[in-house]
Amino acid sequence: MYYQRQDVRRIILDFANASGSTGVRECAVYNAKTRRLQRYLDPDQRTPIYLERPADIDRTIAAGATAFYASYWRYYLDDFNNPVGTDLVWTTRSENSLKFAREVTSWILKALEELGAPEPWVKYSGGLGFDIIIPLEAVPLEVQMGGVSILQDIQESLTNYIVSYLVDHRVGASIEGVISPIKLKRGKETCLLSELRIKRGLLLAPMSLNPETGLVSVPINPGRLEDFSVLQASPEDARGVLWTPPKESHEFLRQIRSWLPEPRAAEISAF
């Protein structure tokens, strides 16, 4: 069975536990028996789902789980009303062409690289798109201390920068919108670039099966994105990379300060 593979379990559990670093992630599963997303082991007692050990994966599978999710928000213990931070997450989703979604994702990675941002995590969605993540650990600590609102301001500024980069570099697609979601069109192809910000929002875990397609949401080396094909996402052949937090970038921090209004920039400089 796919979820018995040790490499799959290690990658899912590592992500669910935030690599043992900042805060905890709320977890959830897609339950094939009830055909819905399930946030609690016992809905009546509202016992949160945690994926800390292989036995937790086995327990949820026995109850009908076929896909695993983890929040891109971070919390202290199970206090889901008071987040300590959030990853910066974008998705690219094509209406009809994985090839176009892959191209759009590649453009975004080049924009972030030119900016001096830490190299993000990238994974295939299991459908017609990709997920791009700058984990909380890659954001300078003084920025994290400014709270979730500053992190969201930074993500909005990054989205604006990405759109400006795409326009300036004339990537060969029309661009509609300046705030998320951004629509990119080329001929009959359409791709949406969206920020993920919803409080208690969930992201399909790396190496989880996509409940709609059965393909693996496989993590990808950003430098090899252009070589990716869905053949690499079959449960038999998928081999993901274990994510490790990127290093902080001083250049990225300087850019962040320049984007924020003076009072907000002073907030992060105070730490």
How does this structure look, described?
The chain is of the alpha+beta class. It has two domains: 2-83 and 201-220, no CATH class; 85-197 and 246-269, no CATH class. Helices cover 30% and strands 22% of the residues. The chain has seven helices and 13 strands. The chain has helices at 6-16, 54-62, 98-115, 141-144, 148-168, 250-259, 262-269, and strands at 27-31, 36-38, 65-71, 73-75, 83-86, 88-94, 121-124, 129-134, 174-176, 182-186, 189-196, 202-204, 219-220. It has a seven-stranded antiparallel β-sheet with strand order 9-10-11-6-8-7-13, covered by helices on one side. Helix 3 crosses helix 5 (148-168). It is globular and about 50 Å long. The protein starts with 5 loop residues before the first helix and ends with a helix.
The SSE string, one letter per element, is HEEHEEEEHEEHHEEEEEHH
Alpha-carbon distance between the two ends: 48 Å
Our Rg estimate from Cα atoms comes to 19 Å
Q: Please mark out the parts with pLDDT under 50 across 5 or more consecutive residues, or reply none.
A: none
Beta-strand percentage?
Answer: 15-25%
Q: How confident is the prediction overall: mean pLDDT?
A: 90
- What would the principal axes of the Cα set say about the shape? globular
Reported for the largest beta sheet, the result is:
7 strands, antiparallel
How many distinct domains?
A: 2
User: Strands across the major sheet, in which order?
Assistant: 9-10-11-6-8-7-13
Helix content: 25-40%
State the secondary-structure class: alpha+beta
Number of alpha- plus pi-helical segments: 7
Total strands: the figure is: 13
